Every structure is written in C-alpha cells, then in structure tokens.
C-alpha cells in the first residue's frame, strides 16, 4: 500500500479494490429477487439482485449464460453462484455470476418426486381413455386472459372452425388455482351425469417456473382428474414441463397449441381427402360404366332377334311335319299290302292242307337234317374260326397292342370325351401291356 501522502489514481484505486474484493470474499451463493434482466446481442446477461433493503448488480458472461436452462424473468426468486468483483472503468460493485437456479427448486422437486411415486403406486396415473375427435364440445379450464386460451382458439379456428368451445375461467397460478380447478371439475362431471353426450375437458396454461406450475402438482387435483367422468387432456407449461395433472389425465400434450391440434381433425386435410375420394369414386364409376357398356355391346352382338328365331323354328317344324306325314303314309301302305297278302295266303291254304304240307316238310327236313348235320357242324366250325379271326382283328386288345390305350375313371367308366373329365381327376390308362395311373391337369375339348 502507498503511504498516506502519496495520491492514487482512480484506476489504481479501483484495481486494488477489485483485488481485495476478489481475494477477500471469493465465490459465494446469493439468494434474492431478479430485476432489470437484460440480454444484449453480445450474449452476456446483465441483471440485478435485490431484497427489501439493498440491490446488487450482476453480470453473467456468454460462456456461462448458455448453460442456464431456466428462464430468467423479472420478479423470479433465484440463487446465484458467483464471485464478488468491481467493474474498474465505472467503479461499480458487482457479482460475476457463474450459475443461476430457481430458489427452492431442489426442495420442490424432491416433494414432487415423492408425491409422484406415491400416486403412481396407487394407480392414479392409469387413465388412458380415447378422446372423441372431434368432441361434441370442448370445455377449456384456463385463465381467461392468458396466452393459452388464445393459442387454443387460434388453432381451432384454423383446423376445425365448427368446434364448440366453452371457457371455464380459473386461476392457473397461486394458492387459489388447485381448489378452483377441482371445483370446476366437480361441476362439469355433475353436469355430465345428466347429459351423456361426449364432451372433453382441456386443462391448460402456458409455461412458467416450477413455482408457477406448482398448483398443477396438487395431490387433490391429480385425484380429481383421475376420477373424472369426462375424458381429460392436460397441456400445462412447455414440452419439458411434466406435472402430476399431466400424468393423471387421459392424454397429455406438450403445449396448448399441440393440445388443440390433437383434439380436432384438420378440416383442410379432410377436405383434401374428401376431394381425393370423390375423384377416385368418379374414376371407378366411369370405369364400371365403360366395362358394363362393353359387356352390353358383347351381349347385344350375341342376341338374335326373336322373329328370326321363330322363323327358323317354324321352318324346322314344317320339315318335321312333312317327314312325319310321309312316314305315316308309307307305313299305312305297307301294312295294307301285308294285310292283303296275308288274306290271299289264308284263302289259298286251308288248315288241313297246311298241316299235311307241314308234315311233309317236316319229314323232308328230318332227312335233310340227318344228312346235313355233319356238313353243318364242319361249316359252323369253319365259320367260328373265321369269326374268331375277325374278332381278333377288331379286338380292343389287338388295338392296344398297336400303341393305343383305354382311359377309365376310378369307377371303371371308359372316358370317351375330354369334357367328361375335370382338372385334378385321377384316371387309369389300360395299355397293351400293363396299366398307368394318370392325373388330369387341364381338359381341352379340342
């Protein structure tokens, strides 16, 4: 240190003060309320910590600021780890911040995890009902002045303008939020008991700190959601925020806008799909009409005029009638001639004469029989041999011996036409020597 009578420059004084502060106090934790949060283009973060009686300027440089995940907003209560220092150019006393986290977050998270484990063991998170899409009416529990309801209505107006939305305004932050939400759920479920139509409840709010969202971690609210008669979708906070209300609801959405997208269909997509189906139907109808038109033309070409068919049948009938008349006349003439001959023969021959002539012929026949029997036997033997030779010549076995075969069904019926068989049928082929079992693959008439 310089002597009392040696003056110091301002910069030297500020430098020595900074060294004393940094060396004497070192790194510390400070808990206070955020104020005057500023984020210039450099990436550094400047803010003020204050309590009821004092304030402290702070600076967090870009290298450290990028590791802060929690939002830093005026009014938030935080814990800051840093080193006391002095900004020499202006002589400003400040804290160089190294880390920032919400105050009390560790205790809240521990309480959250304990309650979550207990409710999960009791089955409070077991809801998984399918929500009707679109619901007859959407009952939205949120703040009437928050951004969440504006986001939901904007998405519904774009995707499904026909949606019927009923806003039940409730506080979404603070000690009054959970009781108000529970009371609203009770009222809606009592009304649902009287009106069985399908409604859906949407519980939503925008993002915030753990303290801001703590009302949605209320045990009684989680149980009320679990026991709700009406299906519930929860969309509380941002995508990274998961509350007990989200876990106990039937479905969860990461944001209010995403909840609205899941609750209703996209009218534009439905119109496009309807247009596609209409075009497909038109094409199918035209194709069917073309095919039926071709079939009609084919049938019309095959159809003969009834008058032509009647003329042809009439001509056939006349021919048959003429043949029948001629055949009857010829038969009657033959019968008359035969009758006349029989009558003449009967008149010329009496029964006695016939008997005598028959006796004479019988005697002659007996003599001829005695003399001709050996010759007849010889002749018949020769004829039998000739017939045997002729029979052998036309015998099917002889034909088979020349390379032909006889096809028989399993029942022994001879197959004469291909139309008498069908695919897959088993046949037996009789050859000159032996038999074969065959399978019909495809019968063809020609």
TrEMBL record:
Reactions that this protein is recorded to catalyse: Exonucleolytic cleavage in either 5'- to 3'- or 3'- to 5'-direction to yield nucleoside 5'-phosphates
- GO CC annotations, alphabetized: cytoplasm; exodeoxyribonuclease VII complex
Q: Which residues form the Exonuclease VII large subunit C-terminal domain?
A: 127-438
What GO molecular functions are on record for this protein? exodeoxyribonuclease VII activity; nucleic acid binding
- Family designation: Belongs to the XseA family.
Domain OB-fold nucleic acid binding: from-to ranges: 8-100
Q: Name one GO biological process term.
A: DNA catabolic process
Keywords of the record: Cytoplasm, Exonuclease, Hydrolase, Nuclease
Which residue positions does the secretion signal occupy? none
Q: What is its EC number?
A: 3.1.11.6
Q: What is the annotated quaternary arrangement, including any partners?
A: Heterooligomer composed of large and small subunits.
> What's the encoding gene here?
xseA
Q: What's the protein here called?
A: Exodeoxyribonuclease 7 large subunit
EC main class here is hydrolase
Give the matching NCBIfam families.
xseA
Compartment annotation: Cytoplasm
User: Per its database record, what is this protein's job?
Assistant: Bidirectionally degrades single-stranded DNA into large acid-insoluble oligonucleotides, which are then degraded further into small acid-soluble oligonucleotides.
**Alphabetical list of InterPro entries matching this protein:** Exonuc_VII_L, Exonuc_VII_lsu_C, OB-fold_nuc-bd_dom
